[in-house]
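Objective 1b: paired records.
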Amino acid sequence: MAIGKRKADSGLKNGNKTNNKRSKPADSVELKVQSKKQAVTSPEESLSESDSHVSSDSESEEAEDADEKHEQEEEDEFAGFEDEDEIDNEEEEEEGEEKSEESKKSSKDAHANQKKLQKDRKASKPFADVSMKAKTLWDKLRQKGSLKADERKTLVSELFDMIKSNVKQIVFKHDMSRVIQTCVKYGSKQQRETIASELSGSFVELCKSPYGKYLAVKLFKYGTPKMKEAALGELYGHVTKLIRHREAAYVVEDIFREYTNLHQQNALICEFYGPEFQVFKERTQDMHIDKILQEHPEKRASVMNNLWKTIEGSIAKGSIGFTMVHRAMLEFIQHASTNEAKDLLQSTKEQIYEFVHTRDGSQVAMKLFAIANAKDRKAMLKALRPYFAETAKDSYGHLVLVTALDCTDDTIMTGKLLQAEFENELIKLSVHKFARRVLLYVLVGWEDARYFSKENRTMLASLSPLKATTSKKDPLVRRNELKAAIGPMLLNVISNAAGELLAESLSSQVVVDTLLTVPGDKTAAVNAVLRAFEGNPADDTHLIHQIHCSRALKTLVQNGHWNGAEKRVVKSEEELGVAEGLKGIINEHLVEWAAGDGAFVVLAVLETLDEKERKKFLDQLKKHQKTLKKSEFRGTQKLLEML
């Protein structure tokens, strides 16, 4: 009976979870269970009423049969109830699918209506038809590979006919600006001039436009000198404001850097000197600051103050990387007092990496290093450190590093900096045209005319008066301390890659001067160099056939460079012993060395030997005199003269 009761309760719980439509079957089941319970318990109640303590077996069996029968009826009743519930769920799913299809359909309709409204809005805008047709032609013009010259010319003519007389109205739209740029790029001279004339009076506004600014640069790139001059005429008087404008600053910078001559650049820069130069109408005169201050010294304070305000504003606006600002900074520091120069130093020392890569900017950086104190130099080197190797590879930046090393007395710091930044790229830097000069400065100094041009030597020499007040160490002492710091690193790379370094003309210079000037044990490096020249010189791949290798080896054999002015070899303080080591290599292929590209090396070896050894060497050469006479090499002819 207890089991029957639990089943009845669970049935009620299940009934409560279902839809309200199924409440009646659940109620009927509950009533039936209750009536059956009463029927089962009635024999027990009758026994208790008569106070009978004995129940018959037949009554007990009847009660059990009744329980089983009622349980089966109860299960049948609930089984039917669950089937009906499943049917309802299926009906609900079908209804949900129908609603989903209806919602999808309504969403598509809404999207279509939205597109239609968008299309209608575009069509209602001015020049909508022109814009759509022009963009179709423009899309064809962009196909560079498949489009022939005649087809392009035809398309450009059609496109030009669509936009002419409306250029000023449509140029500031993002899509039509590109269309007009294409017309300028592929159009004829007459078409370009027509577009430029339509934009007359709007060039300043064009520079400020986020889309029109690209067309402004295109007009300078593809325009005629007349067009450029007219556009520049509109810029005059607005340069100071434009260089601080978010969009226009890049246009003015591109124009200044790429499309103007020196006279035009001076005309643009002079607006930084003050209001009176901004409204200056005559641009044919020389407006350089040198001439202005020379003719009007009373204007110095005003000019320098206005120039500094422009520089300071450009730095604040993030335009310090512009070449135009670098020119202004150079003019400022060239005429600045000590305090004015220090103001520029404090404003730019942590951003020095922004202007070391241009001609004007590098000169500013060099002067700043020269006037800076030890603390400021440390801050500047810290700012440069992430770009140290790249700066060394730059055509102007490497001179900034040379100046920094030549000024900074803290050689422990600079030596560690060179080791950390150069060690992993030493072979690449040694081969590089500009980066190798940083290493050669440490080895031989910037005064060496073989590696530094006259212009660069003059520029570095001009900094000496400035450095004299801020640097205490003797330049030679400073270089020797740097040499001791990076010498082991250079000798190690030569020991491991002598052949690779000697095979390149530029890096062979680093090899030679490292061996001649760096202090310490050079045995491993010298042996590596000698191994690079082993083998038969008759082989086309032998290093001796490269003229720079022949010269490098001859210099090492002589133990010093030839000084043309003094007409002698300037010997190294330390004897390398290359001649002794090379003598054995030459003896293995004596004829090939003496009758080929190695003849001058053989001569250099002979000059280093004592009289006894030289006679012995010449006796060996005499045995091959007939073969040597057949050679046309100049060095071989000199050997024959000695014989």
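Objective 1b, second protein:
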Amino acid sequence: MSMAGESFSVLPAEQRTLLLRMNEVTGRIPPGTLDGTVAALAAEHGDALAVQGPRHRHTRAELLAAADAVAAALGRQAVRAGDRVALCVEPGADQVTGLLGILRAGAVPVPVDPGRPQVSRWRQLDRGRISACVSQSWLLDRLSWPDGTATTAVDRVPAAAPAEPPSRDQRDTAVVLPDDDGTGAVTEISHRELLNMTADLGDRFGIGPDDRITALAPIASGQGIRESCLGLLTGAALVFGEDIDLREPAAWADLLARERISVWNSTPTLLELLLTELERRGERLPGPLRLVLLSGEPLTGALLGRLRRLSGPELAVAHLSAAEEHGAWTACCDLSARETDMASAPVGGPMRNQRLHVLAENGGICPLWVTGQVHYGGLAADCAQHRSVTGADRWAVHPESGEPLLRTAWFGRVLPSGTVEAVGHASAQLLVHGRRLHVYDTEVALAAMDGVRAAAVVTVADDSALGFVRLAPGTNRTGPELLDQLRRKVSPYLLPSRIEILDAFPLTPDGTVDRARLAAAGGPAPEPVAARRPVAAHDRSLLASATRIACRVLGVDGIDPEMNLIDLGATSVELVRLATVIEEELGIAVAVEELLRFPSIAVMVGPHLATDTEPPAAEGEPLVGLVERQMFKDTHHGIRQEYDEVTGIALGGAADPRIPGRRSHRRFAPAPVAFADLATLLGAVRRTRHAGEDKYWYPSAGSAYPLGLYADIAPDRVTDLAAGTYYVHPGRAEIVPVRTGHGVPAAAHAEINRAALHQSAFVLYLISRMDAITPLYGELAREFAVFEAGAMTQLLMTVAAETGLGLCPIGTVDAEALREPLRLRPDDRFVHALLGGIPDITGDRPGRTARREQQGARP
């Protein structure tokens, strides 16, 4: 399962290392099958408690004997190895006995909810090609089954001698769960996946025979299968309450204290109901509880904070996720040592022998903080392939290793901690100007508001959102009040049309919020307020100015303010740069995190539209008001407008065709730069003799030419040139080694530029030797050096475009970090820098490639 040989060449080195380490979690998978492992535990700890309920209490030996009796009864009904057998039982100890009995017969259990309508139950049996059913005697008397279905009452089978189960492959299906969507789709879970899952959690949290685990979910759900296997395979005891108490928080609180539960396992929604009951009683969680496992839906920081307040500091908390909704857990986030002020709990990192990847829409690897779709490799993908899971929407291929990946419906991003944070789900998206936006952040913000105990935001048929909340007892808040507060926390595109206050949320059998029922209950939403507000004149002016800046920075001809900039090919680095430029030129603050989530010009300037401006500035003071600044710039004071109406003499001709070729590149291809091309570029700053005088291709104040050019060459990125730093000698038209093998450290560059830096083949540093110009100009020397750097940069970028190279000017560098690599003198001053390499045109925006070909530049 090692990824050591895989390459992530398009990512910075530190991110490659992070992703490799994140996905190197391996461990031993116990041999055999589920029922074989249970039998081994029974042989070793036969007297240990396995299952406890109101009417049944089984040791491990007793549980195995009861399961063998069920297996013998199925054998008498001609059930063969590999056959699928329905398991239709009410929650309790019988569900564990029936599950294990079917497995001991070599068959595959298919849990069926006895509460479903007859038509639905019969359809499940027909689609699953099921001819036998394990149930309970009172259910067999009450429910009807298709003709020819062999039935077995788990509570009435006679004792039987154990038989040797048939041999099976670990990757064979252990359980089949029909999806509750009416399509006939199923989720299959293999023995190997469940054994791997429980071995990981057993080792990670020390779960074993001394533990007692809550069993709150029916067996016909993924949650029920996971918790049953967690107890069966770790040796812990499963503790059931009365089946009528499965949705009664008061009964849970009593069960925790009475049975000395040490491991709570549920969805976050059920935990929230438990905490609400304890808060009502004024009680804390019982002392024996040492571990809380949560899964099935997102976990908010607000809920985690409430849990911490009602427990001791030693309580361990884990948030678990699965590659498939009802499948085995594949990711774990240990929250035991985390702060409680997080907005929501991350998905976490992959469990042992699993791999977790975040891929962009085009299939590329997402850098840190960049949102993409969550995929699983490793064991989850291997087992899915073995059971022939098909469908183009289910599979992807890792762009570097070629490993098949199982695609999930979740969207997330990798954090610097090496964990994945969820940002949304495919079922909870809004379509805004052709771009899918996630309402997950809205739900998290709503759940964190004062007085809100639980929140859910769902999308409805007209592509709008509805919010639902449950308030704390005694809280007097209205939906409109909450909506007004929410406007200050989330993007206007993600505001629900309304917020409804409920006494209780509808729940699925798993114990998650039934979002489908919430969406069905909601009516059509009115048009969002932001869409109805008329655009004022100064709003249009601001949008137009921001659009012009975006066109310039991103190198395109025209942009709709509402369109998604990612669709134009903008990277996260370019978006941050664009935000910086807009802040500098328009004097407005841009929320970069909001921009990265909703990349459009309208989002960048939206908070500043239709707002009051600052009072006019006093004479001689700089303008600070938004409208005043924009109006001032729109008048173009730099042009003598008194001559606008005076007849002039046309210059004729056309613009220099080289103008479009001079542009910045922030993406560089991994191909090495030919030394001949680099030599042509650097040769542009050479000194020549003409008519007996020294000449350069750019001007300098007083012909002092104090500016020196240094090249920092990355390893193996320029042909026939060793890595290291070089001085470009203008008089000799040569590059002279300064320090070979080592260049300027990446830490010398601003964080915003490091992604482009790691892609670049070389960096050019413009350094002014101040003692070559200060004697001539004194205090103006620094300014004249900057002017010269501008002229040299223009020359270098023009020549680069003609040689097929790309340059990206950057201005933020730690000057002190340059002194040793460039062997600078104390009086030398850093002025400017440019990243360089072969432009990566694979991510070009529409029209760029054609324009470059017209200019004659090489790809």
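The CA atoms of residues 643 and 649 lie 12 Å apart. The two ends are 38 Å apart (CA to CA).
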